[in-house]
Amino acid sequence: MTYPGSNQPYQPQPYQPQRYQPPQPPKQNHRTRNILLGVAGGLAALIIVGIIGAAIGSAGKLTASGSTPPAASSPAASSPTPNQQLITKLKDTTGSDGNSLYSDLQRVGDNPLAMASQICGGSTSVSLPSTWSTSDKKAFLNAVTSTQCPGVTITLTGPQYTTAQQQAIDSAESYLSDGSGFSRYGLIQQLDSHYGAGFSRRLAVFAVDHVKVNWFHQAVISARGYLRSEPGWSYSGLVQQLHSTYGAGFTLAQAEYAARKVGL
Fold first, then answer.
1. How far apart are CA 169 and CA 152, in angstroms?
2. Would you state the CATH architecture of domain 215-261?
């Protein structure tokens, strides 16, 4: 069989299947929907921002109202005033009676701040406690001038002694302040001895009679010294040592008081 109009025999073509293409739906216009979605998104963003702002504002109100107060800064340390410095010095200064100068003034009812004001103002009528020794008075005036009125020179007024008498008094006060503990008898011996100060007997007695001292307190100091240097004292042994003229030379009452005071 030949194809019409051709000299070639007819050759049938094999079937070529075609992939099915579904019809495409027509495109729709979504402009209106997009506008609505954009408006909704913007409103949601504004709502979220508003919530966050309200939360921050609430936190600020809590802090301001005191619910969560900021840490308070500690005030800077201030320097002590002259009055405070004077009180501290008087408390730290031990007088010849074993008490601080501050406690001595309190006991007799004197106000050290008022006294300091009078002294710095030029008053010459300020009276210090009669139980104070010359060294106690000098210590008080030094405390006043170093705190209340620096640079002011104050002359200590008091009984007028000869140079020799004053030297003996100064020596006696120096021995009493060295922390050894002297009885009246022992201090006279120390001032009179050539191995001690070397004053005459008359000057030694004069000096001891013109110093202010608590002999009971001196006995306690002496007792403590014996316990430190030679452990193993009994009550009666320490009393004898303190009372004997070959020992410390205190009175019996002073020796017994000291032995009880140190715990025997």
1. 26
2. Orthogonal Bundle (1.10)
